Amino acid sequence: AQKVTQAQTEISVVEKEDVTLDCVYETRDTTYYLFWYKQPPSGELVFLIRRNSFDEQNEISGRYSWNFQKSTSSFNFTITASQVVDSAVYFCALRSKGEPNAGGTSYGKLTFGQGTILTVHP
Amino acid sequence: NAGVTQTPKFQVLKTGQSMTLQCAQDMNHNSMYWYRQDPGMGLRLIYYSASEGTTDKGEVPNGYNVSRLNKREFSLRLESAAPSQTSVYFCASRGDRGLVYFGPGTRLLVL
After folding, report:
1. Mean of the pLDDT values across residues A15-27?
2. Do residue B42 and residue A44 have CB atoms under 8 angstroms apart?
3. N-terminal to C-terminal alpha carbon distance within chain B
4. Closest C-alpha among B36, B27, B74 to residue B54
5. Cβ–Cβ contact A117 with B under 8 A
6. pLDDT at A104
7. DSSP string, B31-93
8. For residue A98, what pLDDT is reported?
9. What is the DSSP letter of B59?
10. Among A8, A110, A117, which would you mutate to test the B interface (most chain B Cβ atoms within 10 Å of its Cβ)?
11. How many angstroms separate the CA of residue B100 from the nearest CA in chain A?
């Protein structure tokens, strides 16, 4: 079974502060993918990043950065110099490669963490 | 290219009523999913379909049925709605490269 834990339920920061959202995962698979999604107040789910289990290189995209550490099964997300528009719920997710079904298709379920509510105050 | 579309956007039902949530994707994806989102629970998988003609139960399938009508469409049916099914429902599809695309969600209130 696979599991994703986002221990921080809610985080509140003041604009321009840096904030890190934690994500810890469990899986028995050696091949898997990790994701972060953002859900702004409007409700849609916005894809932020995908990482595969063979690539532990950290990634930076503008004010966003991700720290993937296989040794601790963590995939943490940092927002630098936070802005009010960053206020949203952030979800970490894990997808294993999956087992082929009878038809030979590998599907791999996508498992989400509980989400972290980030509020950035002006 | 509309991506993943869902209808309706919002629905109010009385306990015991039935309804079908519609989902369609125009990206030629094989895999499609239905999730429900509840406070503090993240998104939980209800059913998924690895390809046209196949469906499998996810984490919370009780009270729901699905139909993969064709490659584009994957509907979710509540035969007898219960207040516990009040939630936001997301449909998603997954491309060959593994990226998952979500629909805008359907807010369902069961009274």
Report:
1. 96
2. no
3. 36
4. B74
5. no
6. 41
7. EEEEEEEETTTEEEEEEEESSTT--EE-S--TT-EEEE-SSSBEEEEESS--GGG-EEEEEEE
8. 59
9. S
10. A110
11. 8
The model's pLDDT over B51-84, given as tens digits with 9 standing for 90+, comes to 898 998 988 999 999 999 899 999 999 999 999 9
For B63-96, give one letter per residue: b (16+ CB within 10 A) or e: ebebebeebbbbbbebeebeeebbbbbbbbbbee
Q: Looking at the complex, does the CB of residue A95 fall below 8 Å from at least one CB of chain B?
A: yes
With CB atoms and an 8 Å threshold, state whether B50 touches A112: no
Between the alpha carbon of residue B75 and those of residues A44, A67, A111, B48, B62, the distances in Å are 19, 37, 21, 10, 15
Alpha-carbon distance A112 to nearest alpha carbon in chain B (angstroms): 6
Tell me the two tokens of residue B32: 């499609």
DSSP helix/strand/coil, B89: strand
Instruction: Mark yes or no for CB contact B105/A43 under 8 Å.
Output: yes
User: B-chain residues within 8 Å CB-CB of A111?
Assistant: 45
List of chain B residues whose C-beta atoms are within 8 Å of the C-beta of residue A41: none
Locate B18 and state its tokens.
């039935």
Confidence of residue A101 (pLDDT cuts 50, 70, 90): very low
Mean pLDDT throughout B89-103? 83
DSSP code of B7? E
Residues within 8 A of B (CB atoms), A 45-84 only: 45, 47, 50
HSE-CB at A109 with a 13 A cutoff on CA atoms is: 20
Supply B39's token pair. 């406070």
